Structures are given as structure tokens and as C-alpha cells.
Amino acid sequence: MDYKEQVKKYLEYSEYRKELDWNTLKAYRIDFRQFFEFTQEDIPEKSKIEDYIVELHKNYKQKTIKRKIASIKAYYNYLEECEIIDDSPFRKIKVKFKEAAILPKIIPREEIETLLNYMHSCKKRSKDNTYKYWLRDIAVIETLHHIYSDIHTQLF
Questions:
Q1: 18 — phi, psi (to 5°)?
Q2: What is the Cβ-side half-sphere exposure of residue 24, based on CA atoms within 13 angstroms?
Q3: How far is the CA of 86 from the CAs of 6, 77, 89, 123, in angstroms?
Q4: Could you tell me if residue 81 is inside a domain?
């Protein structure tokens, strides 16, 4: 069986039956090309797939590795559903990722102070019926800012 023909059928299936986005299909094409260039086989077995996964870890970040593995795994599931292969080797491959903790980006103190100064100046110019809303909004921003400052101080 020629893997190029099977990949073509899978991509058509993904486009028309699964209705995947053009960018997803483009990523799949790249993933399949890299996978088959590395393995040099039409239907690589478990050991070859594991070697490929190790190679991915050497060259890519976790998010990219996950996507590439998911692409190949979905392809093997398709081959199994179409009865081209008996069992997907991915059933025997355990892939775990230790998620890196990414702290959220923060708003710099100067920008928060600028925002609060602006809010205070608007509060002074507001009419009586909107004054209470300005006070509420300022209180919320100042509270969140103080909470963030306390957490940031504890972490760093």
C-alpha cells in the first residue's frame, strides 16, 4: 500500500467528512510529510513511531509535538476504521507531557496607575447619577490591583 495515496484519501476525508479548517489540513500535510520522511515506511510500526516521537522532543516545543502526534494518531485511527490495519500502534504508545506552568502576562504598574488616574478624573466630571458607577469601577480596579500586588510579592 502506498502511504501517499492513503494520506491523500485521509486528507479528503478530513476536509469533506470531518470538515476541518484549511489551516488544520495544511498542518496535517506538513506533519505527514515529516513523519514519513523520518520513518521511510508506508505503515511504520510502534518502535519507529516511538523513535519519531523522541525526535520531535529534540526539535519542537510541547504544543507543536502534541499537535504532530495527534495528527499521526488520527491518521492511524482512520486506517484502523477503514480496516487497512488491524490495530493502531498508538494503543500501545503512552505519551505524557509535563505541562509547563506559564504565568499570565501582567499589566505594568504604570498603566494601572494611568488607568486609575483617568478614572478618578472622569469621576470628578461625572453627573450625580453616574458617580456611584465610577466609584464601583475604581474600587474593582484598585482591589484587583492590590490582590495582584500581594500575589506577585509572594511569588517573587
A1: -90, -15
A2: 16
A3: 15, 10, 9, 71
A4: yes
Residue 35 is part of a domain; what is its CATH number? 1.10.150.130
- Inside any domain, residue 104: no
Contacts of 80 (CB under 8 A, 6+ apart): 86, 87, 88
Do 66 and 97 touch, CB atoms closer than 8 A?
yes
Model confidence pLDDT, tens digit, residues 95-152: 777 767 777 777 787 888 888 888 888 877 777 777 788 888 889 988 888 887 777 6
Claim to verify: residue 83 and residue 114 sit in the same structural domain: no
* Dist CA 142 CA 119 (whole Å): 11
Give the count of beta carbons closer than 10 Å to the beta carbon of residue 44: 20
Q: Check whether residue 57 and residue 124 sit in a common domain.
A: no
Same domain, 17 and 86: yes
